[in-house]
Specification:
TransReg_Diox_bact_type; mainly alpha; Lambda_DNA-bd_dom_sf; single chain; 148 residues; disordered N terminus; Cro/C1-type_HTH; 2 domains; 7 helices; DNA-binding; Helix-turn-helix domain-containing protein
Length: 148
């Protein structure tokens, strides 16, 4: 051993203590799955890292107060629902912000969009798809600018 330094002989590392809330993590994971999202999808939608999402869902850390409203918004929940401070369980699906009808899952929305695009003549489908992408991206940029 080099003088003045300590050397770990056992190769085994001490596991990190759980500083989060396992119930909160389970609520987030369950809601994410109800919406048909993967952890990667949630990380992308919240602009947070996959490891951070995994640590929250497994109870190793809490989301920062800065990120809590973002989680609630992306998951279509109130902060009370997210943190389990309301008596009733959150609905399986968030409501559509305009019609109030249940919001479709990601897969249902994709299937609906594909069906609609397939009704167009083949000669205009790609351009229509490009326009849909541009409108979706503009909406995402607008949503992100509102949360900052």
């Amino acid at each position: 051993m080099v003088k003045g330094t300590e050397h770990r002989r056992s190769g085994a590392s001490t596991p990190s203590p759980r500083t989060g809330d396992l119930d909160l993590g389970r609520r987030i994971a369950a809601r994410r799955e109800d919406l048909g999202m993967s952890r990667k999808d949630l990380a992308s939608a919240t602009e947070l890292s996959y490891p951070y999402i995994a640590q929250i869902e497994t109870g190793y850390r809490l989301p920062s107060s800065k990120h809590q409203p973002m989680f609630a918004r992306v998951l279509g929940m109130s902060l009370d629902e997210l943190f389990g401070t309301v008596e009733s369980a959150p609905p399986l699906r968030a409501e559509h912000p305009i019609t109030g009808a249940p919001r479709p899952s990601r897969e249902e929305a994709i299937e609906r969009a594909v069906r609609e695009l397939e009704t167009l003549p083949a000669s205009v489908r790609l351009e229509a798809l490009a326009q849909v992408q541009m409108k979706v991206m503009a909406g995402i940029v607008e949503d992100r600018s509102r949360t900052r």
